[in-house]
C-alpha cells in the first residue's frame, strides 16, 4: 500500500506498509526536483526487548529464548548464542559437533534463501505483486521453490528436532545428534537440491537488473579455510580485520527517531553492507569450485556491487549450502557424546556468525551461578538499515524521470535486496523517562 | 477409532499467542476423542504435500474480527473469497489464506476443502484461550465429531 504526492517541484513517495518483507516497516522518501531531501525506513514493528528479559535467565536457556527472535533464522540466533557462551566458558566443542553446526546452518540457508529468492524477491523482477499471482504463470518455478524450502526445513528438523524454533542446540553441543544413517537418508534430496540451486542461479541471472553499484563497505566473517558460518575474523573491503572481541570498538548502534530498530555504522565512517553479496565479495575463494563456476557464469564474481544482483548471490549461496551439506554428510561420524561437560564461572564472551541475511553479533555476561547479567544482540537487518536508506538516497535521483508508481515499486524492490527481517531488528528499545516535578 | 481416512483435519495456529492457538486446541481435542486430526505447527506450505490424496480437507484456525468471540464460520471452498488479512498472518511465513491461494494457483488444492474459522478475542502472548473462544472450540469439536461419526457409518 502506498501513496504518491506529486507537485511540479516536490514529490513524496510514501509506502505505509512494506510488503514481502518479514515484519512491519514503512518507507518515506521526499524529493525536491531531482534532489532527495529525506529518506526514512521506518520500523514500527514493536520492540521486543529480548536483551532485557534475558537478564536473570540461566545461560542454558539463552539458545532457546533467542531462537524465538525469528522464525526464519532461529538457528543463526542459537549459533551466535552458543558460540558466545562457549567462548565465555572456554568450552571446546567436538570436531563432529562443529561439522554438525555447519550442516545445521546449511539447512537454514537453504530454506531462507529459497523462500526469499522465489517467494519474496522474484515477483519484483517478473512484474508480479506477489508469489501467488506469479505461481499461476510460473508454477514450475514456485514448485521448485517449495521443494527447496522443504528440504532445508527437513534438514533443520533432522538436526534440531523441529523446523521452527529447533530445540536441540545447546551450550557445549547438541542435546541429541543424528546417526550417520539418518543423515545419509536425506542425501538424495540434497543432491536434487544442489541441481535445483544451480538452476536457481541461472534463473536469477536471467532477470533484468538496473545499473546501480554503490561504493559499499562490505562486512562479513572470514575464515582461512572455509566459507564462513560460525567462526572467523570480521573483515571488510575497506580495511577492517578484527577479532570478534573488538566488534564494539569498530561498529556502533544508533537510535533514530523514526525507527524502533537501531541502525548500525562503522564508527567514523557510516553505513555498511552485510549479507550474501558481502560474503561473496569477501570470501569468493573459499567457495567450492562448482559454486565459483556458477557465480562466474551468472555474472556475480567479485567485484559485484549491484545490490539487485544479491538475488543471484543468494542463489550461489544456495549452491554452496547444498554442496557443503553433502560434504558434511559424507564426512560425518557421530561424536563420542552429543555435548561436552563444562564448569560454570562468571565470565563474558562474544561471537558472530553468518545468518542468512548477514553478520549476527552476540555478547553475554554471566555470573558464577550461570545467570545472564547482560546481553547484546546486533542482527544483520539492523546493521543494514542505514545502508538501505543510503541506497535509496542514491537510487531515487537516477529514477527521477520515471512515473512515481514505478519509482515507488523500485524503492521497495531495493529494500528487498537486503531480505530484511524486521522482527529480528526490533529486539531493543532504550526507554528514557522524563518526569516533571509538581 | 472412528475416522474417515478420506477426510484430513488440520488445526493450525500458534499456541503461544492466546486465541491463535484455538485451531491446534480443536485438533488436540479431536484426537483425545479418538479422531485422526493433526495439530500443524510447521510451515503451512508443507500442507500442499501433506494433504495429497485426501478427498476432503478441514482446516481449523483462528480469525480476527467477523463476529462475536467464539463464533465459528465454516467457509466452503469456492463459496467465499478468502482475504489474507482475516487470519492471523505469521510474519515468518504464509498465512492459511495465502497457503490455500497458492495451492489453488498450483492446482494442488484438495477436491473439497473447508476452513472452520473461530473468531478470536485475544492474540497477545500467553497459552490460554479466552473463555468464549474455548466454548466455541468445544462446540466445533462436538459438531465435527458428529459429522465424522455420521460419515463413517
What's the short story on this structure?
Helix content of chain A is 42%, strand content 17%. Chain A is α+β, with helices and mostly antiparallel strands and 438 residues long. In chain A, a hairpin with a 2-residue loop joins strand 3 (25-32) and strand 4 (35-43).
What does this structure look like?
Chain A is α+β, with helices and mostly antiparallel strands and 438 residues long. Chain A is built from 15 helices and 14 strands. In chain A, the strands form five sheets. Chain A has a four-stranded antiparallel beta sheet, with helices on one face. In chain A, strands 7-8-9 form a three-stranded antiparallel beta sheet, with helices on one face. A three-stranded antiparallel beta sheet of chain A has the order 12-13-14. In chain B, strands 2-1-3-5-4 form a five-stranded mixed beta sheet, with helices on one face. In chain B, helix 1 (22-32) packs across helix 4. Chain B starts with 6 loop residues before the first strand and ends with a helix. The relative contact order of chain B is 0.26.
Q: Which shape of chain B, going by the Cα principal axes?
A: globular
Mean pLDDT of chain B: 85
Name the largest protein-protein interface in this structure: A-B, 24 and 17 residues
Class by helix and strand content of chain B? Answer: alpha/beta
Could you spell the SSE succession of chain A in H and E letters?
EEEEHHHHHHEEHHEEEHEEHHHEEEHHH
Strand order in space, largest sheet of chain A: 1-2-3-4
Query: Structural class of chain A, please?
Result: alpha+beta
- How much strand content do the residues of chain A show? 15-25%
Indicate the low-confidence ranges of chain B by residue numbers. 85-91
First-residue to last-residue Cα separation of chain B: 12 Å
Strand order of the largest sheet of chain B: 2-1-3-5-4
Tell me roughly what share of residues is in helical segments of chain A: 40-55%
Number of H- or I-type helical stretches of chain B? 4
Amino acid at each position: 500500500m502506498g501513496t504518491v504526492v506529486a507537485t511540479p517541484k516536490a514529490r513524496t513517495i510514501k509506502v505505509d506498509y512494506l510488503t514481502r518483507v518479514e515484519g512491519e516497516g514503512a518507507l518515506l522518501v521526499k524529493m525536491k526536483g531531482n534532489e532527495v531531501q529525506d529518506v526514512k525506513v521506518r520500523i514500527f514493528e514493536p520492540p521486543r526487548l529480548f536483551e532485557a528479559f534475558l537478564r536473570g535467565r540461566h545461560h542454558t536457556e539463552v539458545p532457546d529464548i533467542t531462537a524465538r527472535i525469528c522464525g526464519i533464522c532461529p538457528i543463526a540466533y542459537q549459533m551466535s548464542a552458543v558460540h558466545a557462551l562457549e567462548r565465555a566458558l572456554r568450552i571446546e566443542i567436538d570436531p563432529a559437533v562443529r561439522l554438525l553446526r555447519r550442516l545445521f546452518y546449511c539447512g537454514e540457508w537453504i530454506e531462507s534463501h529459497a523462500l526469499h529468492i522465489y517467494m519474496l524477491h522474484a515477483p519484483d523482477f517478473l512484474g508480479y505483486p506477489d508469489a501467488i499471482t506469479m505461481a499461476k504463470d510460473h508454477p514450475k518455478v514456485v514448485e521448485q521453490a517449495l521443494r527447496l524450502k522443504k528440504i532445508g526445513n527437513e534438514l533443520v528438523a533432522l538436526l534440531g528436532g523441529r523446523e521452527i524454533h529447533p530445540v536441540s542446540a545447546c551450550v557445549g553441543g547438541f542435546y541429541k545428534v543424528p546417526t550417520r544413517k539418518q543423515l545419509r537418508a536425506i542425501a538424495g534430496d540434497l543432491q536434487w537440491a544442489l541441481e535445483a540451486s544451480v538452476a536457481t542461479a541461472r534463473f536469477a541471472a536471467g532477470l533484468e537488473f538496473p545499473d546501480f553499484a554503490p561504493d559499499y563497505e562490505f562486512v562479513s566473517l572470514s575464515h582461512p579455510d572455509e566459507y564462513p558460518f560460525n567462526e572467523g575474523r570480521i573483515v571488510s573491503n575497506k580495511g577492517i580485520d578484527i577479532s570478534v572481541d573488538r566488534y564494539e570498538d569498530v561498529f556502533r548502534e544508533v537510535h533514530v527517531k523514526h525507527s524502533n530498530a537501531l541502525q548500525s555504522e562503522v564508527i567514523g565512517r557510516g553505513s555498511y553492507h552485510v549479507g550474501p553479496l558481502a560474503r561473496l565479495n569477501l570470501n569468493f575463494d573459499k567457495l567450492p569450485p562448482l559454486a565459483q563456476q556458477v557465480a562466474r557464469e551468472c555474472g556475480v564474481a567479485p567485484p559485484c556491487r549491484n545490490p539487485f544482483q544479491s538475488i543471484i548471490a543468494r542463489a550461489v549461496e544456495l549452491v554452496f549450502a547444498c554442496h557443503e551439506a553433502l560434504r558434511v554428510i559424507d564426512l560425518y561420524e557421530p561424536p563420542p557424546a552429543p555435548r561436552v561437560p563444562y564448569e560454570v564461572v562468571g565470565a563474558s564472551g562474544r561471537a558472530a556468525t553468518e545468518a542468512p541475511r548477514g553478520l549476527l553479533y552476540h555478547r553475554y555476561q554471566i555470573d558464577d551461578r550461570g545467570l545472564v547479567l547482560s546481553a547484546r544482540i546486533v542482527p544483520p537487518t539492523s546493521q543494514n538499515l542505514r545502508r538501505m536508506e543510503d541506497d535509496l538516497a542514491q537510487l531515487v535521483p537516477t529514477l527521477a524521470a520515471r512515473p512515481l508508481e514505478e519509482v515507488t515499486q523500485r524503492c521497495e524492490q531495493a529494500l528487498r535486496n537486503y531480505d530484511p527481517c524486521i522482527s529480528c531488528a526490533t529486539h531493543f528499545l532504550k526507554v528514557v523517562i522524563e518526569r516533571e516535578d509538581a | 477409532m472412528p475416522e474417515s481416512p478420506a477426510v484430513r483435519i488440520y488445526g493450525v495456529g500458534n499456541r503461544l499467542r492466546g486465541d491463535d492457538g484455538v485451531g491446534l486446541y480443536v485438533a488436540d481435542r479431536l484426537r483425545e476423542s479418538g479422531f485422526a486430526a493433526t495439530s500443524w505447527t510447521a510451515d503451512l506450505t508443507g500442507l500442499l504435500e501433506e494433504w495429497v490424496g485426501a478427498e476432503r480437507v478441514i482446516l481449523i484456525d483462528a480469525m480476527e474480527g467477523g463476529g462475536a468471540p467464539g463464533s465459528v464460520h465454516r467457509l466452503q471452498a469456492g463459496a467465499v473469497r478468502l482475504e489474507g488479512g482475516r487470519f492471523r498472518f505469521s510474519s515468518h511465513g504464509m498465512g492459511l489464506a495465502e497457503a490455500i491461494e497458492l495451492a489453488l494457483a498450483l492446482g494442488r488444492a484438495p477436491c473439497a476443502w473447508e476452513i472452520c474459522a473461530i473468531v478470536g478475542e485475544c492474540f497477545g502472548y500467553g497459552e490460554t484461550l479466552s473463555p468464549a473462544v474455548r466454548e466455541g472450540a468445544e462446540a466445533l469439536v462436538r459438531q465435527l465429531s458428529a459429522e465424522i461419526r455420521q460419515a463413517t457409518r
